Amino acid sequence: MEAALAGSRARAEGPEGPRERVARWSAGYRPAPGRPDEFLGPDGQPRGAWPRLLDRLGGLTEPEIMARFVAAERHIRDAGISFRIAGDQREHPWPLGCLPLVIEGAEWAALSAGIVQRAELMEAILADVYGEGRLVADGLLPAAIVAGTPEFLHPLQGVAPPGGHYLKLYAADLGRGPDGRWQVLADRTQAPSGLGWALENRMVLARTFPDFFQDLHVERLPAFFQAFRDGLALGAERADPRICLLTSGPYSSTYVEQAALARYLGLMLVEGDDLVMRDGGLHVRTVSGLKRADALWRRIDADFLDPLELNPASRLGVPGILDALRNGSLVMANMPGAGLVESAALAPYLDGIARRVLGEPLRLGHPRTWWCGDLEGLAHARANLDSLTLRPAATPQRGAGRDAILAGPVLAAERERVVAALRDRPFDYVAQEAAPLSTMPGWERGPDGLFLRPRPFVVRVFATRTPLGWQVMPGGFCRVSEREDVDPIELRLGIRSADVWVLSEKPVAAPLIGAQAAPRVRRVGGHLPARAADGLFWLGRYLERGEAVIRLVLAHLRSVGDAVGADISGALDTPAALALRALLHDLPTARLAQEALAGRERPGSARSHILAARRNAAALRARLSGEAWRVLADLNEFLSLDPERAFTESQLAGRAERALSQLAALAGLTHENMSRAEGWHFIELGRRIERAINTGAFALAFANDEATPGCLGVMLSLCDSQISYGRRYLQGAALDPVRDMVLLDPYNPRSIAFQAEAITRHLADLPALAADGIPEPQCRLATRILSELRSGEAADFDAVRLTALATDLERLADGIAARYFPAGPNALRPEKLTGLA
C-alpha cells in the first residue's frame, strides 16, 4: 500500500492528466480469448458505460481514490458488515470491490424486459404444476422432472397461494454468453439471497463516491425496495399487515444481510422459535403476548418450514404452518415449493413452454442444456463428455449426493465414475455447454499504483411482484473473482462483491424509502419478540460483567492499600470473574491483569464477556444502531492483546481505562439514542440486575466486618464513588458510611438501592400478565428487595444479609426470564390481557 501511494504521489505531482491516467490504468488490459468483456468489445475499443465511469474516476488522483477505498473498508469494519462461509462460524469482513459494474440505461431496459418475462414464465409453470398439470399432460414438460425433484412439495398440491401468486421475489444469475448477449446462468426462486448485500454495497459506495451518483445519473434503489415491501403485503387479510422475515438465525451465512433488510424495510426479524400456530393463524411470541403475523418472507428452504408435513428433523420452522397457507390466513414469499423451477432440468423445455404459455419465445437465453433423463439428451451427453459440463438436475442437492456434482469438462480420471452415474441415475444430471464466464474490470494495486485487470463475474438481478406488476431493481448483486480460473458462483474467500450501477442519460431523482406512501402516524414501537428481549437482557448483563472485571483489574494494578493483593481474590466470586480466581496466586501482577483483561480462552475474562455481548448483539443487528456496533468493535479491539507479548502494568491500565470509556459511550448511546420501548427496558434490566449482583459481591470482599481502610478504598473505586464520598465525608473511609453509599444510597447511580429503584420502574413499564390489579411475582420480589434496602441500615448488611440479597437478585433475574423468555416450540405465552391482536 505504501509503495503504491508513493508512486501515485510522484505521478500526481507530474504532468499526468485525467486522460493519461485512464490510459495508463487500461494499457495492459487484455480480455482472455473467447471471453466476452464488459469494458472492451471484440474490436478492442471501450464499450457501454465504462468510458463514462473511467473518465469520471480519472479526475481523481490515485491517492484520492485509494483514500476513498480505505474509508470504505473502515466503514465496513465499523458497521460490522460481514458474512459467513457455509460451515464456518467465523465472520469475515464484507469483501466489497470498489469498482462497480456499470450498464447503460438502454441496455438495462432490454435486460429488464427479459427478466420480467422469465419471472412470469416461472410463475405460470408453478401455477400449472401445483394446479391443473396441463404442461405435463400435453408433453411440454416431462413428469419425471417434476416428480423427481426434492423441491416438489406434495402437501401443497392443489393449494392456491394466498394473494394469488407463488412468487413475490424472483432473481436470476446472469453473465454474457459467447455471442456477447446476456444469458441466464441460474434461476433463483427458493429464497433468493443477495438483496441485502446489494443494499449494503450501494450504501457503502454512496458514502465513498457521493458525487459520482449525481454526475453519472446512477439509477436509485429506494423506489424498488418500497415496491418490494408493498408486494410482500399483497393478499394479506388486514389493511395494516404485520410482515415478518423468517431467518435461520445469526449463524446463517446471510444473517447480516437479512438483519439489514429487516431494519431498512421495517420488518420483524424472527426465528422459528418466535412463531407459533394458534387458531389457524401464525403468531409471533412477543413480550406482550401472541401477535398475528399476516405476511412472512422466508429465508429458509421450504423443506424446513413445517416439521409436521415436510422435514421432520427441522428445528428452523413452525409446526403446522402449512395450515395457514391452506386457509389463506398467511401470505408467504416465496410460496413453499417455488424452488422447483430452479431445476436445471427445465432449461431444455423453457422456450417451448414460453411459446405456449406466454405466446412468445424467451428473450433471455441460457447455456445450451440437455437433460440426461431424456434418451436423446443422454445420448448427446455420453457422446460429448469431454466438452460438456455435468450438473445436478435438482438444485440444491443435499446429503451425500452433493459429492456427485461433476464440473467439466470431465477429466479422464473421472470418466469411469461419470459413465457409471449416467448409467445408474441419468435423470439426476443435466449436461451443459462449457463456456467461461464473461469478465469486467477490477482494480489491482502494484508497486507503481493502480491498474485494471479483467475478472470473471456473475450478476444477480432481482424482480419483485408489486400491485402494478413486476418491477426490476435498477441494480443488482455482483460477485467478482480475484482469479481468472475461479468462477464466482457463490460467495467465498477469493470472491469480491461489486455494486451495479445503471446509468441514465438524464438526471435521476433520489427518493427516500417511504416517500411513495406515507404511513399512519403512530408513537408506539413494534412488538418485541421474546427471543429478542432475551438477547437484549443478556447483552446488558454481559456488558456489566465485562465492566466489573475491568474495574477489578484496575484496582489490582493500582494496588490501593497493602491488603488489596490478598483480598481482591474474594471479589472473584462474582459471576463476572469466578473463573479467574485461581489465577491470582499463580501469576505476577502484570500477567494476571493481561489474562483477566484479554484472555480469549479464559472464561470470566473481560474479553470473554465482551465477546459474549457481541454474540448477543450479532443476533440483534436489526435492533442496534451502527454506532453501538462500532463501539462494540472498538471495545473488542482494545481488549485484543497479543498473548505472546508481555505488557507493562501502565500499558494494561491504559487499555483498561480506554475500555471503560467505550463502555461508558455504549451506555450513553443506550440512554440517549435508544427508544424507550420494550427493548430498552430489557437491556436496562440486565445491566441493573448484574450491577447490583456484582456490587453485593464486591461488598462481601471489601466491605465486610473486618475490612481495612485500604479495602474500603478499593470498594469505593470499584463503585466509582471516591469523589462523591470525599465530598460528603471529610474523614477517611469508614465501614458504615462506605456501606451506606454503595448499598443503600438512592442518589448514587452505582449503589444497589439505585439499581433496585430502576429495576422496579422498568418492570412496571413492561406488559402485565393479567389486568386484575395484582402485581406479578417478579414485580412483588423487586418491590420487596427495594423495601428492604429503603428500610435497612448500613450496619445490618453483614455477610448473611448480603448473601441473601444476592440470592434474591438471582431469583429476580430467573423470574424475569420465566415470565418473558420461554423458549421452544411448546412454550405458551400469556394472553389474558393482550389477546391475539
From TrEMBL:
Domain DUF403 residues, every copy: 528-821
Limits of the Circularly permuted ATP-grasp type domain: 100-481
Ranges of compositional bias, category Basic and acidic residues: 10-23
Stored SUPFAM superfamilies: Glutathione synthetase ATP-binding domain-like
Record-linked InterPro entries: ATP-dep_Glu-Cys_Ligase-2 (IPR051680), CP_ATPgrasp_2 (IPR025841), DUF403 (IPR007296)
Region (Disordered): 1-45
Pfam families linked: Alpha-E (PF04168), CP_ATPgrasp_2 (PF14403)
The name this protein goes by in its record: DUF403 domain-containing protein
Protein source organism: Methylobacterium oryzae
